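Example (one chain per record):
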Amino acid sequence: MIVFNLKCLSCDYKFEGWFESSKEFSKQKKNDLISCPSCENHVIEKDLMTPNLSKKTNTKNYKTKKTIASNINKLKKMVEKNFEYVGDKFTEEAKKMKYGEIKEKSIYGEASIEQTKELIDEEIDIVQLPFSTKKKN
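Predicted structure:
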């Protein structure tokens, strides 16, 4: 996983994005899959980032990156094992639980920026996962 500092060229909003690779970032940008959390514009660029330099060797950085990737992988496995995947019905299911229409349970899935804003406005706690949640059929 790579974390990029991103910047919206429309409203100047700065945010972070997690990608599997630099190539994946370019692919998502080209297909307008990256949007500003503030204004939803798709004109996004990488922002200045501090280089990750080591004094003696990159071994420590490599181990740290490997550990982070390993921890993200473990988190993904834990979520997939213990949470119910609800796909694009995530917002609907979260609201039903909040208002007592269905029993509370641990879920994960997809939500658009607009849907995420709705959940936040309704004070429904959510966490963005640092990995793709889309299951393959």
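Caption: The mean pLDDT is 85.
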